[in-house]
Amino acid sequence: MNEKLPPGLDLLWERLDAPTSEPKPGLSLSRIVHAAVELADAGGLDAVSMGRIAERLGFTTMSLYRHVKSKHEVLLLMLDAVATVPAELDEPCADWRLGLQRWCRTQWAMLHTHSWVTHLPIAGPPITPNQLAWTDRALAVLRDTGLTERDKAGVVLLIANYLLSAARLSTELGPAASGESVAAYSTLLGDLVDVRRFPALRTAIDAGAFDYPPDATEQERRFDYSFGLDRILDGVAALIRQHAG
Amino acid sequence: MNEKLPPGLDLLWERLDAPTSEPKPGLSLSRIVHAAVELADAGGLDAVSMGRIAERLGFTTMSLYRHVKSKHEVLLLMLDAVATVPAELDEPCADWRLGLQRWCRTQWAMLHTHSWVTHLPIAGPPITPNQLAWTDRALAVLRDTGLTERDKAGVVLLIANYLLSAARLSTELGPAASGESVAAYSTLLGDLVDVRRFPALRTAIDAGAFDYPPDATEQERRFDYSFGLDRILDGVAALIRQHAG
DNA sequence: ACGTCAAGTGTATGTCATACACTGCATGTA
DNA sequence: TACATGCAGTGTATGACATACACTTGACGT
Fold first, then answer.
1. How far apart are CA A19 and CA A42, in angstroms?
2. How far apart are alpha carbons A196 and A44 in whole angstroms?
3. Strand D contacted by A59 CB (< 7 A)
4. Which portions of this protein are annotated as coiled-coil regions (chains A, B) (predicted)?
5. CA–CA gap between residue B60 and residue B54 (Å, rounded)
6. What is the pLDDT of residues B85-139, one digit of tens each?
7. Distances (CA, A) of A148 to A223, B45, B183
8. What is the CA radius of gyration of chain A?
C-alpha cells in the first residue's frame, strides 16, 4: 500500500499510527496537532497559525516544519485528531434508523465541540483514518437493510454532508446564546423582503416560518438538525422498502 | 428598513439596486465585482485578491476601498452577482417534485459554472437578494403542498444545503475530466482500508460501491446529485402525505 | 476665485506561510 | 578516542496579502 498517497496523507496513515512509546521532550507530531486543536477550539480556525502553534509549544515557527510538510497537513491532522469515533458506536444496533440517529447525535456533538471543523477548507470525500471509521460505522448500521453497497455508500455520504452543513449553519447562527441570532435573522428578513419581488418568501415570513415562539425552551430555539434528518431518513426508508418489495 | 444591517450587507441591498445609468469611466462597484468574478472563474477563490482585482482594472489596490469596505464584502457581492435566478424558474410548475428538480438542475448548473461559490467562507442562512430570490422560487414550488410554511422553509434549506455540498464534492472530485478522480479515490480506498479496522467499509469497497463500471458513459461517471436528491424528495413526499392524511 | 468633496494614489504596517542556510548535539563507526 | 553523519531546532529573508492613513488632484457649486 501507500506507494503514491496524495500529498499530506502519508502522515495520517503512517507516522501517527505508531503510538510513540513514552513522552519524550521536544516537539512531536501529536504535540503540534494538540496545540493546533487547542488554538482552534479557543479562537476558531483563524487563530491557527504556524507561528502561534510554535509559540504555544515554546519553539520557533520553523521548527514545526521538521515534523510537518505544510499547514494544510496540520489541518488534515487536526481533523483526524478530533474525529475519533466513540466506542458507543461499535455496539450493533438492530434498527437501522435508530442506529443512524445515534450516529448523527454523536457526530453532532463532536461537530459542536470543535465547530471549526465545519470551516475547514477540506472538501473531498472522507479520506483520513477517523473519517473512514465514521463511514464504516454508518455502513455497518445499514448492513441488513437489503440495500446495495453502492446505495449504502450514497446514503452515508448524504447524511454526513447534511450533518456538516447543518452544523455549520448551527454554529453560524448562534455559537453559544443561540435563539437570539435566529430571531435577528428573522427580523432582518422581515425588513428586507419585498412582497413583489419575493411573494412566496414574504408569505413564509408572515406566517412566522422563521420565528420561534417567544416562550420556546432553549432546546427549541437552538437550530435543530432533526427536521432535515427525519426527511432524509424517510427517504432512505422508502428506498429500503422499494428494494425489499 | 435597513436601519441596522449586518456589516457588508448594505451594499447589496442599496447601492447595487440602482442600475447606475450609463457606463461612466472610472471604477464602480459592478466593475469591481465583475473583475473579481472573472478572476475566480479563471483561477478559483485564491486568485481573488484586492491587488489583482485592481490590477485587472488598471487601478491601484487601495482605490477599491473607495467602493467597498472590505474584501469580505467583495465576496458577498460576487456571490450575489453570480446567483441570478433564471427566468425559467418564474414559470409555475404544477408538480412540486418536478418543480424542485428543475430548481436543482438550474442551481446545479450555476454552481458548476462558478465552482468557487462552494468554497466561499460564507456559512450563514441565505441573505443576499439573489439568494433570497432562489429561496422564494423554491417556496413558490411548494405552495400548494399543504405543508406548513415552517416545514416548507425547512425543506428548502435542506435541499439548498444538499446541493451546495454535492457541488463542492463534485468539483473537488473532478473539475473537468471527472470519473478519473473517482477511480483514483476508489483505488486509494482499496489500498488503505484494513478489514479489521473497517469491516463494513471493506465490504462496500469489495462490492464495488466506489467503482464505476469501465464502460460507463461520461454522464454516469460524473458525480451525480440525483441519488441524494431523490432520497430527500421521497422524504418530502412522505411529509406531504402525512400532512394530507 | 474659493471652498468642498469625491476619486484615486502611495506609503507603511502587521500577519502570514514558507524557502534556505545554519548550528549544535547525539550517536555510530574506525 | 577521533571523526563523520544526520537530525532537531534556529534565524533570517522573501513575497503575498489586507488594510490603515495621509495625501493629491480635479470637478463642481457658490
1. 27
2. 40
3. yes
4. none
5. 5
6. 999 999 999 999 999 999 999 999 999 999 999 999 988 888 899 999 999 999 9
7. 33, 38, 19
8. 22
What ranges do the domains of chain B cover? 9-82, 87-244
- What are the DSSP calls for B218-241, one per residue? HHHHS--SHHHHHHHHHHHHHHHH
DSSP state of B202: H
Position of cell 460505522?
A137
Report which of residues B9 and B153 the model is more confident about.
B153
Residue found under cell 477517523: A130
CATH number of A9-82: 1.10.10.60
pLDDT digits (tens, 9 = 90+) for A71-102: 999 999 999 999 999 999 999 999 999 999 99
Interface of B with A in 95-114 (CB under 8 A): none
Helix axes A71-82, A129-141, angle to 10 degrees: 40
Query: Which positions 20-49 on chain B have a beta carbon less than 7 angstroms from any atom of strand C?
Result: 26-27
Gap from A26 CA to chain B (nearest CA, Å): 30
Residues of B in contact with A168 (CB under 8 A): 123
Q: Are B54 and B61 in contact (CB under 8 A)?
A: yes
Q: How is residue B68 written as a grid cell?
A: 467597498
What cell does A229 get? 434528518
- Smallest Cβ distance to A1: which of B6, B191, B198? B191
| Residues A45, A116: Cα–Cα separation, whole Å | 6
CATH number for the domain whose boundaries are A84-173+235-245: 1.10.357.10
At residue B187, the 3 state secondary structure works out as: helix
- For chain B, helix, strand, coil in percent to 5 are 65, 0, 35
Nearest residue to B108 (alpha-carbon basis) of B160, B46, B178: B160
A102: part of which helix (H) or strand (E)? helix A96-113
Classified by CATH at the fold level, domain B87-244 comes out as: Tetracycline Repressor; domain 2 (1.10.357)
Q: Which nucleotides of C are covered by protein (CB under 7 A)?
A: 7-11, 15-21
Confidence of residue B3 (pLDDT cuts 50, 70, 90): very low
B165 touches chain A (CB under 8 A): yes
Is the CB of residue B237 inside 7 Å of nucleic acid strand C? no
Please give the angle made by the CA atoms of A104, A117 and A52, to the nearest 5 degrees. 150
Grid coordinates representing B175?
473539475
Distances (CA, A) of B168 to A121, A158, B123, B162: 11, 13, 14, 10
d(CA A191, CA B73): 20
Quote the radius of gyration of chain B (alpha carbons, Å): 22
Give yes or no for a contact between B136 and B90, defined as CB atoms under 8 angstroms apart: no
- B119 CB-to-strand D distance under 7 Å: no
> What is the pTM (predicted TM-score) of this model?
0.91
CA distance, residue B120 to nearest chain A CA (Å): 10
